[in-house]
From TrEMBL, chain A:
Its main location: membrane. CDD domains: PE_alpha. Keywords: Antenna complex, Bile pigment, Chromophore, Electron transport, Hydrolase, Membrane, Photosynthesis, Phycobilisome, Thylakoid, Transport. Belongs to the phycobiliprotein family. One of its GO terms (biological process) is photosynthesis. This is Bleomycin hydrolase. It comes from Candidatus Synechococcus spongiarum SP3.
UniProtKB/TrEMBL annotation, chain B:
It is a peripheral membrane protein. One of its GO terms (molecular function) is hydrolase activity. This is Bleomycin hydrolase. The keyword Electron transport applies. It comes from Candidatus Synechococcus spongiarum SP3.
Length: 164, 191
């Protein structure tokens, strides 16, 4: 799982040396940003259901055709799965905020996602609409501190980039 | 390989749950302790040579048969291999202490270590004893309770062999318990 600490350890191990002063400095650097990340993760976990619901509503209001017969959301089961998937991405964003890298999203969310969506004939534009809504909706200081919001938004942008 | 943070992500993913306030509180502890953790890693890495050579010397003092002909630290080639192994084990312990998680130690060092030593005919009890001495001296370096070698009549030219840390004494006590657990992990893997 990629994070600052594991990257540093992998590099040191490949060279067969003890963690050097510069290794310790880069760990220290990531630790300094960590409190903002953990704040964002905590606030996201607290408001998780509301965030997912709002993001899911956004995609069906922007693309109402999805609920027509023969489309990706033509019965309640499919609609529920869309909300579930958005929840999965949000959960992985929560993990990434804690880890301090994009490892969880890369390994568990993004790898293979494009192929799966193509095979199942699911459009990715509605997901983009959902996450764009989540990104626009976040507000500082109402939801979290500016630094925390910046970390949260950059991960939402990362997901959007991977789906567009 | 995992660290304290990705460990939280992996165990939350197994439950398909978010990382909530409870787990985050314990990670905040890691962050609060981060500077003492880095000091502790630094105490080990800046004194690695001293820790390893003292441990191997101590192991041999207790069992001088090791350096007599036919012993496992005779000739120099095998003694060098022993010192090298001591340093490798200490290095992985330093990685684990930095990451706050034992997975790097388990995956990259301990996995198959005992079987390898058995196949090579290395005595496991001696190796475990060397690790135990490394544990004692590393903890002394981390906790700043280490002392200089005692002066003797025959040895008047002693110089300070280790890098005295300038941290507050006892400041790293929370991390030293964790460091001890990694040494114990190695000892039990060899047992």
């Amino acid at each position: 799982m990629k994070s600052v600490v594991t990257t540093v350890v992998t590099a040191a191990d490949a060279a067969g040396r003890m963690p050097s002063a510069s290794d310790l400095e880069s760990v220290q650097g990531s630790i300094q940003r960590a409190s903002a990340r953990l704040e964002a993760a905590e606030k996201l976990a607290a408001g998780f259901d509301a965030v997912v619901k709002e993001a899911g509503n956004a995609c069906f209001s922007k693309y109402p055709y999805l609920k027509q017969a023969g489309e990706a959301g033509d019965n309640q089961g499919k609609v529920d799965k869309c909300y579930r998937d958005i929840g999965h991405y949000m959960r992985l964003i929560n993990y990434c905020l804690v880890v301090g890298g994009t490892g969880p999203l890369d390994e568990w969310g993004i790898a293979g996602a494009r192929e799966v969506y193509r095979t199942l004939n699911i459009p990715t534009a509605p997901y983009v609409a959902a996450f764009a809504q989540a990104r626009d909706r976040g507000c500082s200081p109402r939801d979290m501190s500016p630094q925390a919001l910046a970390e949260y938004n950059s991960l939402l942008s990362y997901v959007i980039e991977s789906l567009s | 390989m995992l660290d304290a943070f990705s460990r939280a992500a992996v165990s939350a993913d197994a439950k398909t749950a978010c990382i909530g306030a409870g787990e985050i509180a314990s990670l905040k502890q890691y962050i609060a302790k981060a500077n003492t953790r880095l000091d502790a890693v630094n105490a080990i890495t800046s004194n690695a040579n001293c820790i390893v050579s003292d441990a191997v010397a101590g192991m041999i003092c207790e069992n001088t048969g090791l350096i007599q002909a036919g012993g496992n630290c005779y000739p120099n080639r095998r003694m060098a291999a022993c010192l090298r192994d001591g340093e490798i084990i200490l290095r992985y312990i330093a990685y684990a202490l930095l990451a706050g998680d034992a997975s790097v130690l388990d995956d990259r060092c301990l996995n198959g270590l005992k079987e390898t030593y058995i196949a090579l005919g290395v005595p496991l009890t001696s190796q475990a004893r060397a690790v135990a001495i490394m544990k004692a001296s590393s903890l002394a370096h981390i906790n700043e309770t280490n002392t200089e070698t005692q002066m003797t009549e025959s040895n008047q030219m002693l110089q300070q062999r280790y890098n005295k840390m300038a941290t507050v004494k006892g400041d790293c006590s929370m991390v030293s318990a964790e460091a001890a657990s990694y040494f114990d992990r190695v000892i039990s893997a060899l047992g």
